[in-house]
Amino acid sequence: MNIAILGTGVVGQTLAAALAEKGHTVTIGTRDPAETMARAAAKPPAKVSFREWQQANPGVKLATFADAVRSANVVINATSGVGAMSALEDAGADALGEKILIDASNPLDFSKGMPPTLTVCNTDSLGEQLQRAFPRVRFVKALNTITAALMVNPAAVNGGDHTLFICGNDADAKATVKRWLGEWFGWQDIVDLGDITAARGTEMYLPIWLRTWSALGSPMFNVKIVR
Amino acid sequence: MNIAILGTGVVGQTLAAALAEKGHTVTIGTRDPAETMARAAAKPPAKVSFREWQQANPGVKLATFADAVRSANVVINATSGVGAMSALEDAGADALGEKILIDASNPLDFSKGMPPTLTVCNTDSLGEQLQRAFPRVRFVKALNTITAALMVNPAAVNGGDHTLFICGNDADAKATVKRWLGEWFGWQDIVDLGDITAARGTEMYLPIWLRTWSALGSPMFNVKIVR
Q: Which letter does DSSP use for residue B106 in this model?
């Protein structure tokens, strides 16, 4: 498949490396590829600059948001929440078309110190804001409730026996994403929470996720729904 | 033990019945006991009026918030979130003293239709509001992330192997509550999320919990943290 990943941070890098390794054609989208490649410093929590990362992952291409999206079969939004809307605006509604977009972003606001707060919650969500702005795009909110290393390797904890939440307005898109996440990474227990308004739930889960990370001392955990 | 439970709804009833059965002295606190007993209709989701419930549970006493709290070793707040502050004000700071108060309430606002929103979240929480209003009370937020039947009987799903989150400012109070929840109900996996600001996390978990309930068709589930 031809996969566009928006965002050059740890989430984008992790997804891109894992999908390229599976043989997919992967292009990371960024606002200004030349600027991204010129950056010498690592952007925490990344440990190396994007340029260094790219040298270690030469199979992954870098392009503008619009160029990455245009040729893709599927788009994954791995930008920071505060950058998501402008990344999609840069990509443009025409290039995005009616594509499936897996939205892994969270509306985290780090500007007021730690722990981060959410820029939107309770009566709205980033997932809904993006869906309203790009009504033709088939958004599937997924992967935003776990750390990047676990997104692409659920088997790293409890033999992969834990739960991923998805939501979105398009049932076919959700069924397709469910299948892809199984094929790509081995996800087995995927709970469909309903339409895109359920993004309020998966985004508002971030505060308890962050506190659990602090309590356990590691982000390598997830929840398993037991019934 | 002498246990005061604030709130006459399903959560209060379920906790009271389970604790009375264990041999504890249990008093349910309410604003106006005579009015509560005079009510003929059930308050959904309760299936019977409080009067009928009380006839089936004659060991549980009913008193004003202040009378229930005054003689108690521990207080459990099982009011609705919107009723929590006034219940504690009725009980009074003197009666509450430095008691341990297990806060099982959630700031759910049903007034704008379903699903409910939160009356406070993101940069504050009900747990913090109550702690600020009653600084001497040793609040331990707990039990607010599961349905009432599961609070008192974790073994009802997955043999009891799932996670309860607690938080609060007083380490001794948390250790005591952890022990009580094990002795009373059999809770084994209790994750301490830190100080009372973590109540933001456990309260903001409600939207994903409610959507998961919808997806599964039953509230008899919980999350287990796997690592």
A: -
Please name which of B150, B11, B13, B151 lies closest in space to residue B81, comparing C-alpha atoms: B11
Torsion of CA B6, B127, B159, B46, to 10 degrees: 40
A199: left (phi over 0), alpha (psi -120 to 50) or beta: alpha
A114 and B CB contact within 8 Å: no
User: What's the rounded mean pLDDT across residues A176-195?
Assistant: 98
Give the HSE-up count for residue A8: Cα atoms under 13 Å, Cβ half-sphere: 26
Tell me the C-alpha distance between B160 and A54, whole Å: 47
Cβ <8 Å between B193 and A207: no
Contact B194 A210 (CB under 8 A): no
- The pLDDT value recorded for residue B162 is 98
One-letter amino acid of B165: F
A156 at B interface, C-beta within 8 A: no
Select the residue from B164, B165, B208, B212 to test the A interface by mutation, using most A Cβ atoms within 10 A. B208
Find the CB nearest B226 among A158, A192, A215: A158
Name residue B222's beta-bridge partners.
A226
Q: What is the pLDDT of residue B43?
A: 86
Rounded Cα–Cα distance for residues B75 and B103 (Å): 8
Min Cα distance A197 → chain B (Å) is: 10
Chain B CB within 8 Å of residue A136 CB: no
Among all residues of chain A, which has the CA nearest to that of B156?
A227
- Cβ-proximal residues to A93 (8 Å cutoff; 6+ apart), any chain: A134, A136, A137
Q: Is pLDDT of A43 > 90? A: no
> CB–CB of A63/A27 below 8 Å?
yes
Q: How far separated are the first and last CA of chain A, in Å rounded?
A: 36
Other C-beta atoms closer than 10 Å to the C-beta of A56 total: 10
Determine the straight-line distance between the first and last CA of chain B, rounded to whole angstroms. 36
Complex ipTM value: 0.97
pLDDT tens, position by position, A44-77:
889 999 999 999 999 999 999 999 999 999 999 9
